[in-house]
Structures are given as C-alpha cells and as structure tokens.
Specification:
six-stranded mixed beta sheet; about 190 residues; 2 domains; single chain
C-alpha cells in the first residue's frame, strides 16, 4: 500500500511539473490598470465598439493584434479603452458564463505592456493572423495571436489538449484540432 501511495504521489508531482512547465503565459502577466497604455495580444473581433465580449465571438470587424490602446475605465464587469491614436472608445464586457477565469485574468490574456509583434511566426502564420484565419500547420501560439484564447468553459487547459473550441457563427462552435503543437484541421 505504501508503494502505491508513493507511486501516486510521484505521479502527481511529475504531472504538476509538466503542467507548470507548460503553463499558460497569462498566469505571470501583470494586472491591467486604468490610465496605462497597452497593446492587444491578439486580434479582437467586434460588431460595434460598445459591445465587445470576453466570450470571444468571431464575427464583425477585426481590431488587429498589436493595436495600441489606453485603458480609460474598469469595474467588475466592464473595461473601456481608447484605440490610439484615433481615440475611438471600446467597451469590453465580462461574460462569466463563458469562462472559469476572473475578469482580471482575461484582461491579462487580451492586453500586454509590450507589443508582442509577429517576428516569431512564419510568413504563412503572419498572413493568417493578419486576416484572422486559422490554417493547417499553424502553431498554437499563432492560433492565440489570430483568434485569442478560446473560452475556458470549452477549453480549460490549452497546453494539454489537442482540441480547442471557440464560439462560431450564431450559437455554433468552431473547433480546432492539433497534433502536438500544429493545427491539423478545423470544424464548424
């Protein structure tokens, strides 16, 4: 019995090291604060500037990855920001139904103090990101740049799953399948 317990304990320790080693980058990100300037970590879709949702719906116009913004307001369920230098105001609402994360954590997935631009991506990935597309062979970090984080309600662990699910058209779903780190197919 002691050996079984030791084996179980060792397995949990090794699993924990694996998960923490592949932990999502946002776990170490700084909180978003009012008055500060940031850059968008990924493309953000919107139909109207006053109704963005953390549910990450993919319809409408794209606010491109790397867009400079200034945070102008923040409360428990809403963040307002200006797109720089145009000074167009956007409102982003916290959709608790689509996530298992706090609003603060979701904001750290969306905004960064550094402009994490696209040099690390291949030419094909860069083109797909600019157009907001997902293509076969695309790496997971490029999918994040192009489409943002999938709702954690559907995809709670990015690094340990080979299937990410996003909101699709209407009430549908859009599923991305991976082999390791590369997209192998998509499904609507």
């Amino acid at each position: 019995m002691k050996n079984v317990f030791k084996l179980l304990l060792l397995s949990l320790v090794l699993w924990g090291a694996t998960v923490s080693g592949s932990a999502r980058a946002e776990e170490t990100m700084e909180p978003v604060t009012v008055g500060q300037e940031y850059f968008t970590r990924s493309n953000i879709w919107y139909e109207t500037a006053d109704k963005l949702s953390t549910a990450n719906y993919h319809k409408g116009t794209i606010l491109p990855k790397g867009t400079k913004v200034k945070i102008t307001g923040l409360d428990a369920k809403k963040l307002t920001f200006l797109v720089m230098p145009e000074n167009v105001e956007f409102s982003l609402y916290y959709d608790a139904r689509s996530t298992m994360h706090s609003f603060d954590k979701l904001l750290s997935q969306i905004f960064s103090k550094k402009n994490e631009w696209m040099i690390k991506f291949s030419a094909q990935e860069q083109s797909a990101i600019k157009d907001g597309r997902i293509i076969p062979g695309m790496r997971k970090d490029a999918v994040l740049a192009s489409w943002g984080y999938p709702p954690s309600k559907f995809t709670p662990l990015l690094q340990t799953t080979n299937m990410w699910t996003y909101y699709g058209r209407g009430r549908g779903r859009y599923v991305i399948y991976f082999d390791g780190d590369k997209v192998i197919r998509t499904e609507e």
